Amino acid sequence: MRSPLDAQLDAALASAGLRRTAGTLALARVFGTTPDAVLSHAEIEHVLVRQGVEINRVTLYRLLERFVAAGLLRRTVDAQRVSRFSAANRESGVPRFECDDCHRHFRLTDDGGKLDAAARKVLQALEAAGHEGHSIDVAVHGRCAGCAGHGLRRERA
Predict the structure, then answer these.
(1) Residue of 56, 74, 77, 78 lying closest to 65 (CA atoms)
(2) Among 88, 119, 134, which residue terminates a domain?
(3) Residue 138: CATH number of its domain
(4) Which DSSP letter does residue 16 get?
(5) Domain of 34?
(6) Within this chain, do residues 12 and 80 fall inside the same structural domain, yes or no?
(7) pTM of the entire structure?
(8) Number of domains, the chain
(9) What is the pLDDT of residues 56-81, one digit of tens each?
(10) How do beta strands 83-87 and 105-107 pair?
């Protein structure tokens, strides 16, 4: 019997026009089970291997591109020029923090909705100027608690 998550992922893939293969379902499941994940290609590949899913590296690149094009995933490029993928947010980009030392990504919570309200205002201002803004991606750079706590210092150029 299929799980409710698999049925939901299957419907999302179908509505995006993607074939529902073992590979597409496995990739969708990675972000369906951990919707706050922000992962690189290598990290996604590692998760899939741990789950026993064998997928060719090039096939995974192609699937990620299709998911981004279909609006299921969002791609951001970090300071080291590594593409990272996260579940797409329908309204605006989820604010994230990138550690400049270890390059891990953390999603920022917006319990009060203030960040989302600010993003809507920016989109409204663009619309008033005649532009078509579709989404906003907010990225904050600095040092994460783990790197700051270990006293690691990054050399600045």
Answers:
(1) 74
(2) 88
(3) 3.30.1490.190
(4) T
(5) 1-88
(6) yes
(7) 0.62
(8) 2
(9) 999 999 999 988 888 888 888 877 78
(10) unpaired
